[in-house]
Structure formats: C-alpha cells, structure tokens
Amino acid sequence: MTREPLTAAQKADVLAEALPYIRQFFDKTLVIKYGGNAMTDERLKDSFARDVVLLKLVGMNPVVVHGGGPQIERLLERIGKKGEFIQGMRVTDAETMDVVEMVLGGQVNKEIVNLINRHGGKAVGLTGKDAGGFIRARRMRLRQRDDGEALIDIGQVGEVSHIDPSIIQFLDRGDFIPVIAPIGVDEEGQTYNINADLVAGKLAEVLRAEKLILMTNTPGVLDKNGNLLTGLTPREIDELVADGTLSGGMLPKIASALEAARNGVRSVHIIDGRVEHALLVEILTDHGVGTMIRAE
After folding, report:
1. Residues 290, 237, 61, CA angle at the centre, nearest 5°?
2. SS (H, E, C) 103-136
3. Cβ atoms of residues 213 and 260 within 8 Å
4. Confidence band of 243 (pLDDT split at 50, 70, 90)
5. Cβ neighbours of residue 147 closer than 8 Å, sequence gap 6 or more
6. Cβ distance 52 to 62 under 8 Å?
7. What is the distance of C-alpha 118 from the center of its chain?
8. In whole angstroms, what is the distance from residue 25 CA to residue 211 CA?
9. Could you give the maximum distance between any two Cα atoms of the chain, in Å?
10. 39-50 exposure pattern, b = at least 16 Cβ within 10 A, e = fewer
11. What pTM value is reported for the model?
C-alpha cells in the first residue's frame, strides 16, 4: 500500500509537535532493546536505523541492545540442533553458546552497525566481553514454578552481576552510537548468554537513562481478551503473571521493565516494533505505541 506524501504544511506540523520532546530529551540517554520483526523485516530494519540516527542528530544519546533469537534458531537448525526454552530463557549448552556468540557478536551486531553507519550515524559494536569485560555475569538458575526451593540449571545462561558504564559514556561523548550484543563474562572468563531485555534494563539503570524502550512483536502488553494495556503498575503485573496472562518470552521483558522503573529509569515502554518508525512515534509525538510501566 502506497501512502500519500505529506504536504509541506503537514510536515511543518510534525516538526512542531516534535520540538517539545526534542527539547525535553536533549542530551538524555535512551536505552533501546531492538528485537522481534524489526530485526528481520528489511523495511523495518531500515526504518529503525534511520530513527536511531535521527535521535542522535537531534541531541539524544541512544544506546542499542539487540537480541537475535530467530537468527540463532536458524543456525541451530542448520547444524541439526533444536532450541529449548524454560520460562522464556534459552537453554544454552557449550555448543549453543558457540552459536550464540557467532550470531550475536558477529553477524547480527555487524549488520546493525552497518545499517546505522549507512544512514549517517557513527555506530560501534560491542559485546559484554569487550573493554575488559564491561558486562559481568553470573550463572542464572531458575526456580521451579511448583516448588520454589528447587533450582533449574539452564547451562551458560547468565544474569547481570555488574556493568561498567565507562565505555558507553566514552562513546556517547564522542557522538558514537553503542550497539551491544547481550553476552557477558564472569571473573574466570566463562562466557554467558544473557537475555537482551535483562541487559537493556540493567544498562538503563546504570546509565540513569531517561527512557528504556523494549521493542517486541505485539502492540504491547495485552490482557486476556487481547486488548492493549497502555499503563501498568507492579500490582497489576503480579496479577497478570499469577493468572497466566503473562508468560513465556514476555516474562523477562516485564521483569526487566519493572526493575528498571523501580530503580530510577524515568519511563519504561514496551512498544510494537512492527510499526514503522515506532521509536519516533513513541519518543517525539503525543501518540504512544505500546505499554508504559510505572513504578507505582
């Protein structure tokens, strides 16, 4: 479907609407978790890269943390290995970890960096193993749902123990756009696959970000009837988890969003990455495209 081009007056209206937001978020850090269809659809990939460059050019400091689940799944299938998930987390043995590093730290990270650079940005790709291991991790063990004391070992899956923000701050000061693959390392040099939503949330806390934006393949958080919930509190989230409305891959996303909101990130948004220019609509207009998580 082709869209009618905007008139000069309509373009002026768009810019006028954006101005207060540009002023409000000037020199503020925005941590963006990039994932879902926005990473696989060519039109959406191009749109995302241009949006990130525009945000940087008008004076904001976007920091991109990316996933890569579909790309990992494709490579696992090629080597005859089936992916397994428990409570939304990928079970990661040593062979799967090699695939994760190859895909996230190599193929996907480089593609995002190249896209942003092609549109006039200055992107720098990193994994948590770079800069002296700036993302420190420890092994994650999940609790059994029916037995809160029993723990499940899901392999080389980590949770963030510490993030050193100095490399990100250094890149921001040089007008670079950091693009981060969610791979961490422990004190012994063991590598861990970390959920990208969790890395984005912790990074937003450490950087004292103005916004944490989590891109997904749904309009946001939906109730049991499929209706969009535009705002959520911790109590409402607990209720949605308890009745099974929130499950699977949405669980780490919601946990990350809630923890970030409770720990100083001014606003957290789960937005629909299938919407072209979703970032700009969320940040620079009066019209949101997802769910906002509030600390209270």
Report:
1. 45
2. HHHHHHHHHHHHHHHHCCCCEEEEECCHHHHCEE
3. no
4. confident
5. none
6. yes
7. 21
8. 9
9. 63
10. beeeebbebbbb
11. 0.89
Q: How far apart are CA 270 and CA 35, in angstroms?
A: 11
What token pair was written down for 283?
């940040």
Tell me the per-residue pLDDT of 171-213, one tens digit each, with 9 for 90 and over. Answer: 999 999 999 999 999 999 999 999 999 999 999 999 999 999 9
Structure tokens belonging to residue 61? 């400091």
| Cα–Cα distance, 56 to 63 (Å, whole number) | 10
> Whose CA is closest to 49, among 69, 34, 59, 60?
34
Question: What size, in residues, is the chain?
Answer: 296
Please check whether residue 265 is in contact with residue 205, taking contact to mean a CB–CB distance below 8 angstroms.
yes
Q: Which residue spans within 17-106 are E strands per DSSP? A: 29-34, 61-66, 85-86, 89-90
**3-state class of 5 per DSSP?**
coil
Single-letter amino acid, residue 146: D
Instruction: Give 161: exposed, middle or buried? Use CB within 10 Å, 0-12, 13-18, 19+.
Output: middle
pLDDT reported for residue 28: 95
* Exposed / middle / buried, residue 7 (Cβ in 10 Å: 0-12, 13-18, 19+): exposed
Please give the backbone phi and psi of residue 80, each rounded to the nearest 5 degrees, phi first.
80, 30
CB 127 within 8 A of CB 192: no
| pLDDT tens per residue, range 262-286 | 888 988 898 888 888 889 988 998 7
Which residue's structure tokens are 């009745």?
243
67-88: b (≥16 Cβ within 10 Å) or e: bbbebbbebbeeeeeeeeeeeb
* CB proximity list for 285: less than 8 A, separation 6 or greater: 17, 18, 21
Per-residue buried b or exposed e for 250-288, using 16+ beta carbons within 10 Å of the residue's own CB: bbbbbbbbbbbbeeebebbbbbbbbbbbbbbbbbbeeeb
